Automatic annotation (TrEMBL):
<dbReference type="GO" id="GO:0005886">
    <property type="term" value="C:plasma membrane"/>
</dbReference>
<feature type="transmembrane region" description="Helical">
    <location>
        <begin position="336"/>
        <end position="354"/>
    </location>
</feature>
<dbReference type="GO" id="GO:0008528">
    <property type="term" value="F:G protein-coupled peptide receptor activity"/>
</dbReference>
<keyword id="KW-1133">Transmembrane helix</keyword>
<feature type="transmembrane region" description="Helical">
    <location>
        <begin position="100"/>
        <end position="119"/>
    </location>
</feature>
<feature type="transmembrane region" description="Helical">
    <location>
        <begin position="139"/>
        <end position="167"/>
    </location>
</feature>
<dbReference type="InterPro" id="IPR017452">
    <property type="entry name" value="GPCR_Rhodpsn_7TM"/>
</dbReference>
<feature type="transmembrane region" description="Helical">
    <location>
        <begin position="243"/>
        <end position="270"/>
    </location>
</feature>
<feature type="transmembrane region" description="Helical">
    <location>
        <begin position="295"/>
        <end position="316"/>
    </location>
</feature>
<protein>
    <recommendedName>
        <fullName>G-protein coupled receptors family 1 profile domain-containing protein</fullName>
    </recommendedName>
</protein>
<feature type="transmembrane region" description="Helical">
    <location>
        <begin position="66"/>
        <end position="88"/>
    </location>
</feature>
<dbReference type="InterPro" id="IPR053219">
    <property type="entry name" value="GPCR_Dmsr-1"/>
</dbReference>
<dbReference type="Pfam" id="PF10324">
    <property type="entry name" value="7TM_GPCR_Srw"/>
</dbReference>
<feature type="transmembrane region" description="Helical">
    <location>
        <begin position="187"/>
        <end position="207"/>
    </location>
</feature>
<keyword id="KW-0472">Membrane</keyword>
<dbReference type="InterPro" id="IPR019427">
    <property type="entry name" value="7TM_GPCR_serpentine_rcpt_Srw"/>
</dbReference>
<keyword id="KW-0812">Transmembrane</keyword>
Amino acid sequence: MNGSLETPTDHKDFLLSTLAEEMILSNESEVLLFRNLSPDTQSPQFQLQPYYGDQLEVYRNFYSSIHGYISIMVCLFGITANCMNIIVLTRKNMVSPINVILTGLAVADMMVMVSYVPFSFHNYVRTGLEEKEKFTFGWALFTLFHAHFTVVNHTIATWLTVTVAIWRFMAVCYPAPTMRYRGIPQARIAIACTYIVCTIFCIPNYITFTVASSLDYQNNTIYKVNFSELAMRHGGLLASINFWMFSVISKLVPCIALTGLSFSLLKVLYEANMRRQRLKVGSDNDKCHDRTTKMLLAVLFLFLLTQFPSGMLALLSGALGNEFFNNVYLNFGETMDILSLINSAVNFIIYCSMSRQFRLTFTFLFFTRFSKDKWAAVPPSEPTQTVGTACV
């Protein structure tokens, strides 16, 4: 195809396969694909030669066999870590506009992983189920809910990451000490708007898919997520729009924006360091300011590292057509899932490794109170003294 993905009506045989739900799906294959089937029921028709499809399918079959266990471990760690992020970032001594936004980000990331645990367990761990047990109406409804729920929350997390970058860029370029507290209402408004707008933005995704019934080889009724009747009209126009909106645009636009903002922040950091070296001065506030910016840059670079590849694969799928989609994009589905989950799970590690104030508050909350003999209590005033620097 030239420049566009074929419509669902061009894939009647494909829609009958075990991966039909991945055809034009939401935010990449990511943590939200409508894969309602286990890897062990894949159709052999996907062993195609173009783009090394047969070799990539060997890789996918291997990784799919362990993906369920790895993804569940990542999710359990990520849920725990994001709970701790929320607890620490909402302490009084941690209050700042950036931390308010990071709290909203932690909530969205946690919701993605909460939904993925039962999805992964049913589709990747319980591989011995018969089709009539695996594809019940209840599980099909859950799969549809999981897909929409994770699409919304992943989109929210994506744009909150962009919001953090914009907010930090403004704080670095136009510093105003009084904005530390005055900016908190604006940060909360930004979070609320992101949650509301992203939920509305995903409406095309809601109406593209539905639960459809069919008969298996034993004449049992099974239920799977498939394209809705509305999505199939006009040559699959809605399905194609949905693909370009959620797999390509909603991935690449934030990545491009974050790339520009990240380089701008790096430039500001470099200029600030050169200025301090010339003057041979540097206050503690300046150092803390730089540490915060570096930490947020680490968060941004992690997002780009885990999300940009899926956006590029989706773009190439739209440009090169079904052979690339079937042989490359689909075979990296679980890999893109785990990258998205890792991105949602490891911000806690970044905060702990790069923010002294976060470590102090975390230690005081989770260790000092339970092991007073081994840890010296952190006076409430100590974190408060550094809060004015807007350190995370």
